Every structure is written in C-alpha cells, then in structure tokens.
Amino acid sequence: MEKTINLAELKNQKQKENEFNRFVEVCIESNKEFIADNIIRFKGQYDSSYIIDIYTDQMLSMALQSKDKDYLLEVISNGNLFKAKQLLVNGFKNDFIVRQAITKVV
Tell me: the pLDDT tens digits for 38-74? Predict the structure, then answer.
C-alpha cells in the first residue's frame, strides 16, 4: 500500500513544531533568573529539582489556562504536554544561570 504525503498538513505540522519549540525557548529565557533566585532563596528547604518542577508546572498551567477543551485533549493525547514539561525541566537544569544557582546551594 502506498502512502501519500499531504504537503499542506506536513507544513502545518512543522509550523506547530516550530511554535512549540519557540514557546519552550521563550519560557526558559524569560524565567531562568526567577528559577535561579528561588533555588537560592529556598536553599535548605527544597531541592532544586523540586523548585524547577513546581515552577515548570505553573508555567504550563498558565500557558494552557485559556485554551479550549479540544486543544487540551490534543496536547495531552499526542504527548506534547509531557514533552514540553521535559524540555522545560531539562532546559532549566542545563541553563548556565540556573546551574550556577544550583552549585551555590550544594
């Protein structure tokens, strides 16, 4: 059986992927100092991974709060919510400023 490629659908999918990646980049860039400050602020009270997880969940929650039910179902069912969470967490943990804060706490 031959499979045909719908170029319009492929272009739309690529555009959504670019928007998704841009969202992750912007979140990391605009929140890394806040995350770093809170890692230092809560030194001894909370682990840095816990702080990153909590704020990442809050960012995703705020980003999705105005979306409709169908959009939310799509994001959850296609795994993009989990993917976004993992990319954000890893992005924060790999960011230079956040890593500096983590080393100050340790």
Answer: 999 999 999 999 999 999 999 999 988 998 998 888 8
Q: How many CA atoms lie within 13 A of 66 on its CB side?
A: 3
User: What is the DSSP-derived secondary structure letter of residue 46?
Assistant: S
pTM assigned to the model: 0.81
Q: How far apart are CA 43 and CA 45, in angstroms?
A: 6
- Contact of 106 with 45, CB cutoff 8 Å: no
User: Cα angle vertex 34, ends 16, 85, to 5°?
Assistant: 35
Q: Which amino acid is at 67?
A: K
Q: What stretch of H or E contains 89?
A: helix 80-94
Two structure tokens written together for 21: 């990646």
Alpha-carbon gap, residue 46 to 30, rounded angstroms: 22
For 50, half-sphere exposure in the C-beta direction (CA atoms, 13 angstrom radius) is 7
3-class state of residue 65 by DSSP: coil
Put residue 3 in one of left, alpha, beta given phi > 0 → left and psi -120 to 50 → alpha: beta
